[in-house]
Amino acid sequence: QVQLVESGGGLVQAGGSLTLSCTASESSSSTMGWYRQAPGKQRELVALVSRGGMPTYADSVKGRFTISRDNVKNTVALQMNSLKPMDTAVYYCYGRNLAGPIYWGQGTQVTVSS
After folding, report:
1. Which whole number is the average pLDDT over 96-108?
2. How does pLDDT run across 65-83, given as a tens digit for each residue?
3. Strand 10-13 to strand 108-113: parallel, antiparallel, or no bridges (unpaired)?
4. Does residue 93 carry a pLDDT above 90?
């Protein structure tokens, strides 16, 4: 069972920046990334990154968020710039090895005030 532990959430004003980090207990995930869930909404993709570093972004965050990965430290980070109130959500770290089971972190709250 892969354990994913997030850190870095918090409260920020619109236009500000935050960086989320996630550490995996082992290096078995070929794909890592971030999803988010706002109150009353479904969980949605934010960004993914392959083991080779190829990123995928939701249209809503392109140009504002940057995902990165360190395969030696088993970490994935999400640099979030130009934050908007619509980015307010619980952010979940995601890990999956090929078509295997999906692992989730416990979630970290990001709140953007207007």
Report:
1. 93
2. 999 999 999 999 999 999 9
3. parallel
4. yes
Question: What φ, ψ does residue 35 adopt, rounded to 5°?
Answer: -120, 165
List beta partners, residue 45: 35
pLDDT for res 47:
98
Beta bridge partners of 48: 33, 56
DSSP string covering the chain, please?
Answer: ---EEEE--EEEETT--EEEEEEESSS--SEEEEEEE-TTS--EEEEEEETT--EEE-TTTTTTEEEEEETTTTEEEEEE-S--GGG-EEEEEEEE-TTS-EEE---EEEEEE-
| R_g over Cα of the chain | 13
Residue 87's φ and ψ, nearest 5 degrees, are -80, -5
Please tell me the predicted confidence (pLDDT) of residue 27. 84
Indicate the helix (H) or strand (E) that contains 93: strand 89-96
SS3 of 86, please? Answer: helix
